[in-house]
Amino acid sequence: MQCRHCAQPLALPLLDLGSAPPSNAYLSPEALRAPEVWYPLRLLVCDNCWLAQTEDHAGREALFTQDYAYFSSYSSSWLAHAQQYVAQMQSRLALGPHSCVVEVAANDGYLLQYVQQAAIPCYGIEPTASTAAAARAKGLEIIERFFGVALADELAAQGRQADLIAANNVLAHVPDINDFVAGFARLLKPSGVATFEFPHLLRMVQGCQFDTAYHEHYSYLSLTAVQRIFAAHSLQLIDLQELPTHGGSLRLFAARSDAAQHPQATAEGAARVAALLALEADAGMCSAAFYRDFQRQALRIKGELLSFLLQCQARGLKVGAYGAAAKGNTLLNFAGVRPDLLPWVVDKNPAKQGQSLPGSRIPIVDEAHLQRERPDRVLILPWNLQGELAQQLAYVREWGGQLVTAIPQLKVWA
User: Fold this and answer.
1) Separation between Cα atoms, residue 365 and residue 348, nearest integer Å
2) Residue 396 burial by CB count (10 A; 0-12/13-18/19+): exposed, middle or buried?
3) What is the per-residue pLDDT across 299-317, written as a single tens digit (0 to 9) for each?
4) What is the pLDDT of residue 261?
5) What are 340-391's pLDDT values in tens digits?
6) Is residue 349 in some structural domain?
7) At what angle are helices 223-232 and 177-187 packed, to 10 degrees?
8) Does the residue 84 lie in any domain?
9) Are residues 273 and 257 in the same domain?
């Protein structure tokens, strides 16, 4: 396999999780009677540009299907994050009725609804029909296509260039990262800004977050790698913020490279970029040694989870799970967990309820099921939302139940 960005041969291993079905390919009752397609799930690192990436086995159309089941609006903390972002960008960029905001991977309109409420003209780009329909139900304009140079050129020719392009948790999801990034320089106005949010590879490795690996995540991103990709496609990195979301994320601010004296390009922003590049270098991210221990950490977590579930079974403790999240599917399939050890998982999303998890085939139920079953332990699969879910599930303590997380180590919460 060659690197998605620089086309150099890949030889440095990062993680091998065996094989798994696509993490968002939830199974209907009818699909349970049919075989599933499983793909190898291996991560490699380019020792030329240091882009970490999933081995190619599944195309984007096989992963981002018409009935795609991930809807951003079911997380209250993520909605608050989006609302705060819109307020910050409105102030920072002086956005108003004569501006244009575009979101690439608009999902169900979780973010653009706040742009619309601020009376700022906007539209979204979203390739999955299920989430695009949900966004349109909010009164938003959605272009139902994959983003890249071709679409960016079409929109620019129509006079639809943007003052702000938001790209939250999508940069890792594109197989052709060069075509995707190049589209931003074409869709931005000369003084426009694009922001990109994604989980930081540094935090992923340091926090043993191996369950962030799944086929939809084609790339795992460091600032070092992303800066090189931006520079190759006419974008300059002008600022960044470190965020707590998804276990530690980056928000990057980029402008067109041909924009001389860009109003958002400041010495303070350049200093923040330089400081984080230095931090990555000091951590050894441009050396093979940084990546060598990740596999061992994944195996440790797998063993801890299996031991916990087997001990609960031996003691007669009832266990359920919360959050039919893609990262949970990675964890459960790598560990080989099936309904005999974990009989059900709760999810708030009605589109998932009544279906089963891919691979493990664990049934997805509503929260009323948890309240009826009163389990002794509740395994929170989306550990990045544990603060939000700890409040939501506080009533579990009423019957002596406890919450559990498996990443970065098995922990039973009092």
Assistant:
1) 9
2) buried
3) 999 999 999 999 999 999 9
4) 83
5) 999 999 999 898 999 999 999 999 999 999 999 999 999 999 998 888 899 9
6) yes
7) 60
8) no
9) yes
Question: The whole model's pTM is what?
Answer: 0.92
Q: Which of 241, 245, 216 is nearest to 111 (CA)?
A: 245
Last residue of a domain, one of 290, 316, 331: 290
Residue-wise burial string across 16-47, b where 16 or more C-beta atoms lie within 10 A, e elsewhere: bbeebbbbbbbbeeeeeeeeeeebebbbbbbb
How many CB atoms neighbour CB 310 within 10 A?
Answer: 11
Do residues 344 and 365 make contact, with C-beta atoms less than 8 angstroms apart?
A: yes
Q: Identify whether the C-beta of residue 304 lies closer than 8 Å to the C-beta of residue 411.
A: no
User: Residues of 56-65 as b/e, b for ≥16 C-beta within 10 angstroms?
Assistant: ebbebeebbb
Q: Establish if 202 belongs to a structural domain.
A: yes
**Residues in the chain with pLDDT < 50?**
none
Residue 196: which domain range?
Answer: 146-290
pLDDT of residue 59: 61
Of 306, 303, 305, 350, nearest to 324 by C-alpha is 350
- The reply to whether 258 and 394 lie within a common domain is no
CB 166 within 8 A of CB 103: yes
Long-range contacts of 233-237 (CB under 8 A, 24+ apart): 233/178, 233/181, 233/182, 233/184, 233/185, 234/182, 234/185, 234/258, 235/181, 235/184, 235/185, 235/194, 236/262, 236/265, 237/273
Q: Do 153 and 281 have their domain in common? A: yes
Tracing tokens 């799930």 back to the chain, one arrives at 41
Q: Are residues 242 and 151 in the same domain?
A: yes
CA distance from start to end of the chain: 46
For 55, the token pair is 């081995």
Q: Is residue 332 part of a domain?
A: yes
The answer on 304 and 281 residing in a single domain is: no
- For residues 73 and 82, give the distance between their C-alpha atoms in angstroms, rounded to a whole number: 10
Domain identity same for 265 and 311 = no
Among 272, 290, 308, identify where a domain stops: 290
Q: Are both 209 and 342 inside the same structural domain?
A: no
For residue 118, give the amino acid letter.
A
